[in-house]
Structures
1.
Amino acid sequence: MMHRIVFLGPPGAGKGTQAARIARDLGVPHLSTGDLLRAAVAARTPLGLEAEGHMSAGRLVPDDLVLRILHERLEQPDARVGYLLDGFPRNLAQAEALGKFSEVDGVVSLDIAPDRLVRRLSERRVCPKCQSVYNLSTKPPATAGMCDLDGTPLVHRPDDRPEAIATRLKVYAEQTAPLLDYYGKRHLLRSVDASGTPDEVAARVRQVLT
Ligand code: AMP
């Protein structure tokens, strides 16, 4: 059974949604560097303040900051059983750094046609409190603008606006996509078609992980 898993895929492929479900199935923590960084921004920590400008522009946060925040999280006792990494690594230097502090059992790549991504990202709304994700056309909240679970007003992430989306897609193509090859060569890569409903995609992910 695999317990140390990496989820790769362009922004908007559904990594966060799938990672949360699969982590629950496997009984391992879902570690999203994006969520960890957003929490640091919200708490106005020095690291969060340094990361904020990069994030809202859609650029990668410098490796040393991301590694620091991830290391800290991996030291928590719940990560001893394994982890599901969502949004890390994002470039070759991060993949090399990960390889130095942990083995990886499998890498799931969520594949989707690029023209779908912009629409998914611009229609995405998130709950800043519980991180639930909605989509204005495919998964609207029951009450417009409110989280179904806790009633918190939903937000449009600053990096889900058009200029930042374009930058994120470019950063993905240039810096993150080479990791498909990196993990492919190490025989760790499992590709999954990420089109369709979250249930359909989750079924495909479970299949490649068993
Ligand atoms: P995400 O929620 O994974 O889409 O991440 C949101 C933003 O956080 C990204 O666009 C980056 O600015 C930053 N970020 C998240 N993970 C990383 C990472 N591994 N390396 C660098 N920046 C990251």
Note: The pocket of adenosine monophosphate is lined by residues 11, 33-34, 37, 54-55, 58-61, 66, 87-88, 90, 94, 159, 168 (CB under 6 Å).
2.
Amino acid sequence: MKKLLEKVIENNRNYTEFGEVASYIPELTKANKNALGICVTTLKGEEICAGDCNTKFTIQSISKVITLIIALMDNGKEKTFSKVGVEPTTDAFNSIINLEAKNPNKPLNPMINAGAIATVSLIDGENSDEIFNKILNFTRKLAGNEDIHINENVYRCEKETGDRNRSLAYFMKSTGIITKDVENVLDVYFRQCSMEVTCKDISRIGAVLANNGVIPWTKERVIPEDIARVVKTIMVTCGMYDASGEFAVNIGIPAKSGVGGGIMASVPSNMGIGVFGPALDSKGNSIAGIKVLADLSKELNLSIF
Ligand code: GLU
């Protein structure tokens, strides 16, 4: 497996040249465009890494999976999905148009920004510190890593420049989707996006989902089985922005990407995979990371379809 991972990284590193690192905040432009790394965590607890697998990056939209799990555990499916839908979209992740145009006017799914902000507003807690700490601690538990923290510079920039997310959130307050203080909800959202992880962290989170909510290395159940199933389904239909259909056809693995360059994949009953490559394609997905997952899916026959 180690040799295979090294081969797919080296075979695909040249694709990093065809993408661009995220530039909507200055902090993300500092990433090394040619970085590419992978880690696989099997359900037997083996961990195999190759390439730039120790580089830290911000989790960004991959955190939407974690907040969806917590919101579902706090509220159940019925309440959660009365506020946010489960339908894929062909619009960009930060699109505004459907919020007003669709009837009922709830965000399409929890993986786009509007849906993720609505989802985080459903998490129980007294104040934003308590809610964010709940997200951080759950992330640490899923990743088996107490050393996950937020990148303060990224957090500050996200907060300073997040006007589009702010407009989505205030619109949702006006329609009753969000009922809490908007700035507090956004503060949690900006902090969750700014958590710093490595490929290994996200491959472990993918492994917990692959194991139906039981941590493979402690055997502790941390997510109810039905919620793990629902979340993996939404990862298939909505996890790769508006390229989710193509990803399902070519790769066929539940996955979620983030503009920090990470892709978290979960192969049911088999393994979690974490990929990092900050050069992104036009949809915001790691351009070489997708190629790596395509090769791996083919070599190991990982498609669930
Ligand atoms: N912090 C980013 C935003 O809300 C996350 C985007 C992403 O990873 O898709 O715009």
Note: The pocket of glutamic acid is lined by residues 60-61, 93-94, 113, 158, 165, 193, 258-259, 284 (CB under 6 Å).
3.
Amino acid sequence: MSAYTAFRKRCTVGLLAIGILLSLSGCVDESTSLERIQKEGVLRVITRNSPATYFQDRSGETGFEYELAKRFADDLGVELQIETADNLDELYSRLSQPNGPELAAAGLTASEERQAQARFSASYLEVSPQVVYRNGQRRPTRPDDLLGKRILVLKGSSHAEQLRKLQRQLPRLEFEESDAVEVVDLLHMVDEGQIDLTLVDSNELAMNQVYFPNVRVAFDFGDASSLSWAVSSGEDLSLLSEVNAFLQRAKQNGTLQRLKDRYYGHVDVLGYVGAYTFAKHLQQRLPRYEKHFRNAAQTDQLDWRLLAAMGYQESLWQPEATSKTGVRGLMMLTQNTAKAMGVANRLDPKQSIVGAGKYFNMLRDSLAAEIKEPDRSWFALAAYNIGIAHLGDARKLAEAEGLDQNKWLDVKKMLPRLSQKQWYRKTRYGYARGGETVHFVQNVRRYYDILTWVTQPQLEGSKIAESGLHIPAIDKRKPSEDAAPQL
Ligand code: BLG
């Protein structure tokens, strides 16, 4: 061994020893942020409490961001702990605190102003900022049309940032920012004519369109932007690269698309007119029957919103509805079902709802014990529409195909076969319009989802806007001259 080699070896040993000593004494914690999360077994995520991100529903915590973050935590094998911030400034400042949450998942846009505070992940959703106005007023079509309007946006939002940029070209442009409101409040204020315009992201508008009948898209404001998750800018890159890998997988295996459809796809499924009509009926018709739904649901231990969703699918909440086949009333009871449920007058909305609740419950109770919730409820819905006997046929077809007769996803594939001769001639009860039943269950579930979030406390809290939320600069100005009369 040369003297040089011996010297190097001694140095290496020395350095190693120092390294071991340092790490033993805890002077250097070399674990990455990802390792720390895994060691502690908890991922702390900060979000906003809003229908488009995170809220409480019939079965607990839910929302697009919550569901995605929950899957991420499950993948990491750790518990998810959600924290909420009241506004975006607070969210970013808590994210950068030394003992703050590790991740922010709140429909965030990787805007220039925020790049200094946070590192953003790859995008998981493309959205367009949209200018929103009230139906009946002149539709703004370009940035110049924003001049002289009462505009309110979320404080600290990318929309405020975009408006500030526009102000450089249009110095007379005025707008307000508020941290006392959420997106629903902004839309509510446009809907009620309390402000002229607001800016929201397309996904948030899509979700809320089914609630506010008067709000309309004026025009897309600038380019589409990408929603991302964020980690504090002080963090190492371990968590961020794990997030990116997860988002990539969620894109590839369809998880993102499913969540997007479930939360933001109402307008796509109902169509623009359908969403608008639903919103109108929600305000004008549902209040007349809500107490009947609630009472009947309580008696039968159901969620009243499921019963209401069925009523909307059956008759658009119209007590005198009649089908071509003579089925009648708000809940579309056949004569036989009405009789069996003790309904004397099918056209009486209260009786119709009580009878339907009783019938639905009876069907649900009669299903095989192997069928678990929530599928159990979807099976009961199918039986409500097609009859328990035909549903039994579809389950048998599923079994014969090697599918699971206790899973809705499998049985729903078989139902359309009940109207095809090659299949229904093999069944015990024969022909039935099973395709319609699939459609029926799908629609009821869609309305149920919508009703679930429009009746959640967060949205009901948005009534603060109605009761005179105080935004001084806005209050001072006169309502615009061309405001449309109330519909
Ligand atoms: C349902 C009955 C089931 C009955 C099935 O028909 O009506 N449900 C109710 O009365 C609530 O009881 O099952 S059976 O008794 O075991 O035979 C099958 O007959 C009602 C359905 C029929 C459907 N809507 C509730 O979903 C309907 O109105 N179809 C007609 C559509 S159209 O006007 O011809 O387009």
Note: The two ends are 95 Å apart (CA to CA).
